[in-house]
Specification:
By secondary structure, the protein is α/β, with parallel strands linked by helices. It contains seven helices and five strands. Helix 3 crosses helix 5. It binds zinc ion (ZN).
Length: 238
């Protein structure tokens, strides 16, 4: 017993040295005057204020855990198409994201993100969540965040089953964008524009959106961070 105790103390001693070194590295002062070198970088940083900091939200909304599980509810319709497409979108996100990584789960109770494809009435009945109607909207992500934080705790995504294939793909990509923490932006160059843009390539995120995902899902980024706290991250990518 005694031996084990000493071993534990030693272990903690080593651990705190590592933490102290790490803190030293991170205390590099933030320069609030910093600007990206070129106009494209400036554009990405300025529009990220809306995408990642959610405009008036003013703070990062994010999953803080390192593994987020998504689940396909198969009781709706056209779910097969949704699974095929959404899985591809999540793997694109994983290739850009340091943290979290997104994994499929076959267990609904275990899921952080639930994806449902079907009629609005079926969805409303099953999930007791009110939609604005599939003929107008086409998709919605219901986000649950921590009580006094912007940490995402749960997301329930509904995609209409009645829209044409291209629109459904773009809506799926957009709603998954919300599910990972992104808000609307005012540029058509992003999938997070609030209107379906049929000229957006459904097979890949634009370079702008790839930057948003990389910045938001850099492992240094946590929910609640403000614009100034994000500057070291912008410096890495822009
Ligand atoms: Zn939206």
């Amino acid at each position: 017993m005694k031996r084990n105790f000493q071993f534990t103390l030693l272990f903690i001693g080593i651990l705190s040295v590592i933490v102290a070194c790490k803190n030293d590295e991170e205390t590099e002062p933030i320069n609030p005057q910093w600007k990206p070198a070129d106009t494209e970088g400036q554009f990405v940083m300025n529009t990220f204020k809306s995408a990642g900091l959610g405009g008036s939200r003013d703070a990062i909304q994010k999953w803080n855990k390192s593994e987020v599980k998504y689940y396909f509810d198969k009781e709706g319709s056209n779910t097969k198409d949704l699974i095929e497409y959404a899985s591809k979108v999540f793997s694109e996100i994983n290739s850009l994201s340091q943290s979290p990584k997104f994994y499929e789960t076959a267990n609904a109770d275990d899921a952080d993100i639930i994806l449902y494809s079907g009629r609005d009435t079926e969805f409303e009945k099953k999930y007791q969540l009110n939609l604005e109607g599939e003929l107008k909207v086409g998709g919605t992500a219901f986000m649950t965040t921590g009580k006094n934080s912007n940490e995402i705790k749960k997301s329930v995504v509904w995609i209409t089953s009645v829209f044409p294939e291209l629109e459904r793909k773009l809506i799926t990509r957009h709603e998954i964008g919300h599910a990972i923490g992104l808000a609307h932006v005012s540029t058509q160059r992003s999938i997070m524009w609030d209107t379906v843009d049929i000229y957006y390539n459904p097979d890949e995120f634009t370079d702008l959106d790839k930057k948003y995902i990389q910045i938001l899902n850099d492992k240094r980024v946590k929910s609640g961070m403000n614009f100034n706290e994000m500057i070291p991250i912008f410096q890495t990518y822009l």
